[in-house]
Amino acid sequence: MAAPREPVGEAAFARRIDPEREPGLSPEQRRFMAQVERAQRQRALQRQLRSRNVLLALGIGVVTAGIYGYTFYSVSQEQFLDELEQEAEAARARAWERQKSAAS
């Protein structure tokens, strides 16, 4: 009996087969192939979940850094406004003194 011919450009180990239609496979070989395919799907799912987890962690990190950055910016603005208010009070006091000295 002649061996089945390989399609041109495909090696025997790279040829995809359908276990249901492939003659000569024992039930144990079919179970093993199904088990290997399940394991491959499971690994692919784990890689996908891992990449999603990395993206989620990066997103949480960016949001956290943004909150901290905004907080530091707000605090520095408050200090600036406090200093500005102190300068305005000093200027009002000087103006009041000048007004009092000019009136007398």
From TrEMBL:
InterPro entries according to UniProt: Coa3, Coa3_CC
Membrane topology: Single-pass membrane protein
Residue span of region Disordered: 1-27
Key words of the record: Coiled coil, Membrane, Mitochondrion, Mitochondrion inner membrane, Transmembrane, Transmembrane helix
Role, per record: Required for assembly of cytochrome c oxidase (complex IV).
Similarity section: Belongs to the COA3 family.
Entry protein name: Cytochrome c oxidase assembly factor 3
Native organism: Gallus gallus (Chicken)
Lineage: Eukaryota, Metazoa, Chordata, Craniata, Vertebrata
